[in-house]
Amino acid sequence: MDPTPPTRRPATPGGPTVSPPADAAAIRRRNLGLVLRHLADHGPCPRTEVAAATGLAHGSVTALVADLADRGLIAEDDAQRSGVRGRPGRPLRLEPGRAAVAAIQVTSEQLRVAVSDLAGVITWRDTVAHDLAPGTPAAMAAAIASLIARAAATLPESGPAPVLARAVIAMAGPVLDDPDQTVVVAPDFGWLDSVPLRDLIAAHLPPPAVAIDVINDANAAALAEFHALPRDSRGLVLIEAGTGIGGGVVLDGRIHTGSHGVAGEPGHLPVAMTGPDCVCGARGCLVTFAGPEAVLDSAGLTSLLHNEGLQAARSELLSLLRQSEPQALSAMDAAATALGTAILSISALLDTDEVVLGGLLAEWFPWIAPTIENRLHGRRVLAPTLGLRIAPAALGDDAILIGALGFARRAVLADPAVVPPLPILRVAEDSR
Q1: Do 236 and 353 form a contact (C-beta atoms < 8 A)?
Q2: Which domain does 206 fall in, by range?
Q3: Helix 326-350 to helix 310-322 angle, to the nearest 10 degrees?
Q4: In terms of domains, do 34 and 128 share one?
C-alpha cells in the first residue's frame, strides 16, 4: 500500500516522492526525466525510439533532447543505417560523467562516503572516523557537510565539467518520507527528539546548492538488495542483525516507510504472546529472540560479548556452530523459529517475493535456513504458488552505500533540471 496521499507519486523507483506536475515547468521537468531515464536504461537509441517508449510527441522529444544536450547530460552519435528506408537515425546516449552523486553512511563510529557517476560507476570512496555519538546534531551535520565538500572536490576539472548533483545521507533511525525528511529519533547518537538533518547540513554548504536527501540506512540496504534481484521481483523485505535487528521494505521498486517513517522495523514485530520485555515497551519482539545479544546469551557467550565485544563473540559463535556444539545449535534453532514466525506474518501482510537476511543473519544462514523453511512448510503446502524466497544478503557491508548511491542516481535521472546548463563558452567550443 502506498503510504502517501493519492495525489503523490514516486518520481522514480527508489527515489524521492514528489507531487504530480501542476504547471508547464513541472511537466517539462518530468518529461526531461522520462527521456533521460530511457536513455540511461536502454540507450544508445534514436529519437523515434525515445518517443515511442515514453509516449511523447517527436517534436517534444527533439526539444527535450536539446535541453539535455545543453546540460551536457546526453550526446548524439553519428547517424546509423537501420536497414529501412528513410533518414538514418542518430543515436542518443547518456553522458554519465557530467553529473556525480554522493552517498554518506553515518554509523556510530564512522562516516563512509562514496561518489559515482550517472552510470553507477564508483569514482571515489573514503572512511572517516568520528567521536560524535552521542553528540549534537549540529556537530554531525557540520562533519557531513565537510565530507560532501570533499566529495565535490574529487570531481575532475577536465572532461564534461562534472557537478555534484545530489548527496544522500543514510542514517540509523526512522526518517519521515516528507518534504523535510526529518530524522524522528536516533538513540545511537543521543538524538531523542526529531532532527531536521537535511536543513542543518545544507546550512554548512556554500552555493551552488547540492540537493540533499536523508534516508534510513536499512532502507538503503533493502533498496540495494532489491536491485540486485532478478527483474521478476516486485517486493523485498530485508531483516538484518547488527547491534539489534533492523530492516527495510521495498514495494514495486520504492522504499516503503509508512506514515511515520518506522515501517520496516522487523526487530519489534511480536513473535510470541509472552516473552522477554523489549526496550520498545512490548513483549516477545523478534529482537528479544533473534537479536545478537539474545542469541549470544543463549549460546553461553554473554561474558565474552561483554568483555571482548561483539566481533570476538560472533567469531566464537561461528566456530562453535562449525563444530556442531549443542548449545550453539540450540541458540540458532530458537532464533530461526522466531524468524520463521516473523516471516510468516510479513508474507501474509505484504506478499513480497523475497525476504533477505543480512548482517549476522547472513553469517548464520546455513544454520537457520532449515528451521525457517520448516516454519514456512505449512503455508507453502496451503499456497504452493506463494513463491516466497528466503535468501542471505548478497551485497554485504557495502549494501547501504550502494543503495544510497542508487537512490541518488535515480533521483537525478528523474529530475535532470538539477544539473545546470554547460557554460556558454563550453557549448560553443563543443559545437565547432
Answers
A1: yes
A2: 99-220+398-424
A3: 100
A4: no
